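Pilot study result, target chain (272 residues):
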Amino acid sequence: MVRSLWTAATGMIAQQNNVDTIANNLSNVNTMGYKTQQMEFKSLLYQTLQTRTTSANGEYKPSSAQVGLGVRNASITTIFENGPMLANSSPTAFAISGKGFFAVRGADGDTYYTRNGNFQWTLAPGGGCMLADSEGRPVLDSQGRNISLSDAYDPTQVVVTADGTVCYPDENNNPQSLGITIGLYQFTNPGGLERKDNSLYSQSAASGAPINEATSDTVEKSRVIQNYLEGSNVQVVDEMVNMIVAQRAYEMNSKAITASDEMLQQANNLRR
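Predicted structure:
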């Protein structure tokens, strides 16, 4: 009886974490560049009640008797499918079509990666302006440097091509390259990236080193789309169905605890 109490308790804890993950997905349904997360489960140890043996009549029993001891959360995986492309009037709104990530430099000096291309031009420390995200973190080019322009350029006139090249119109209004390319990076295992706040990811041993699309010929190139932002890939209907399933599983585990408690109560009453 006690074993069933603990087994059902593990199920309730696992489903509570599942609901927490679903709630986080739903709360970020309008977060640009957000990637939906999915809870994975695995069973706990099995206790052997009877090994493979023979019966009292000498008949062979090919299978043993084992009882499971519950469930636990194995991992929370991120689904890196492209989100919808949402039109945006800002010239510093960029979406990625493909597997690439933008790179930004944090206040701690480390490089972080994101799919949120909601950027803006801000004042550069040495004069002029630089491209930064909504939190002021500099956006990096394909060489790992800040994307900066001098005071001679009007940032509102900057055009970015599909390969990330930063261009500026000449006297004939024809875009000319400024020799700057927005950095795009891929990972061998993006699911291994460490999740941070503000839709940021950091490199980890599981994700592998970042692959610079500008210098690598082994990956499929991504496309940068100006005046668009990539929306969240959360499917609200799927998440609502997953929440109902998780809620029902939570209820069933709670009923198992109630049933075990009633059976223990009946066993205690046998002495009366």
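One observation from the pilot: The longest helix spans residues 236-269. A full batch analysis is planned for the follow-on phase.
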